[in-house]
Amino acid sequence: MIVRSRSPLRLGLAGGGTDISPYCDQYGGCVLNATINMYAHCTIELHSPEKGISFVAQDIDVTYHSPLLNYLELEGELLLHKAVYNRIVSQFNDNKPLAVTVYTHSEAPPGSGLGSSSTMVVTIISAYQKLLNLPLDEYEIARMAYNIERIDCQLSGGKQDQYATTFGGFNFMEFYEGERVLVNPLRIRQPIINELESQLMLYFTGVSRSSAQIIEDQVKTTTSTDKKPLEAMHDVKKFAFEMKERLLHSDICGMSDLLQESWNAKKATSESIATPHINLIEDRALTSGAKSLKISGAGGGGFMMLFVDPIHRLSVEESLSDLDGKIQPFHFTWQGTQSWKA
Questions:
Q1: Which residues does the annotation mark as catalytic?
Q2: Would the pLDDT of 273 be above 70?
Q3: What is the pTM of this model?
Q4: Domains in the chain, please, with CATH?
């Protein structure tokens, strides 16, 4: 049997960082995000036991093989692939090993700021769900993905990515203590989406980054004696509510202004967010006609969103042309994770 799945990557429009514990546990977090037509892909082949277990991450050219076991040690490469396998076997297959070959690839590199790691976990879970006919709804898939990353693998990060890719579309998400999450789908009229797509540029900075230090800084904001980072986090949360209202009322110019305010507040939560390279990109883009910009994800690198009037788009592209980054074409998408039999 062969099954496949794909899950969309997401743009964090506002509120990113407030979905990280302990901030969301103590104050409640909220995030506005939207999925785009860039995907993480998975194919699972179920075969005879003597072939054992294989994971093939095609985009990073890493392969792992093991004889048939019901538990894989969480060490070395392809940690997430192993952790998903362990969860599926222990929770849904009576602890009996599965003879599978799992192929994966993502259309964005790790550290892109588009939630690529969490999206990959969700798409692997989604493929297993189809393979074993598992009765999992969107909340259960997202929660499992979060627990695999944060508990099983001890990787730092927030909660929005798993829910964004599972549900798909434009969503306003609320995060509370005790893993309580509310996903509020937003119905956005097509003319608003058209105008958003005409004004938004997605630019890969040329640098993939580790978010660990930034997230560690943001975790410390709730206990630090310096109240400025915590106040900045409160501002980030406030802007998420305001951005949602601007979006629902077709106020694209207002969204652009808020994006810049949100970016300035986000930079105040950690010194690692805006590097000299990112500052150079920001200076060039704003000087050549961009109205506002913001890094998608934790910061330090990855993809940058820019609001640009279409008549100035080519000028902005030209101002960035000699740098190592590149413009990434995209469209918003409404569907979350999908799986099917080949």
A1: 161
A2: yes
A3: 0.92
A4: 2-187+333-341 (3.30.230.10), 190-327 (3.30.70.890)
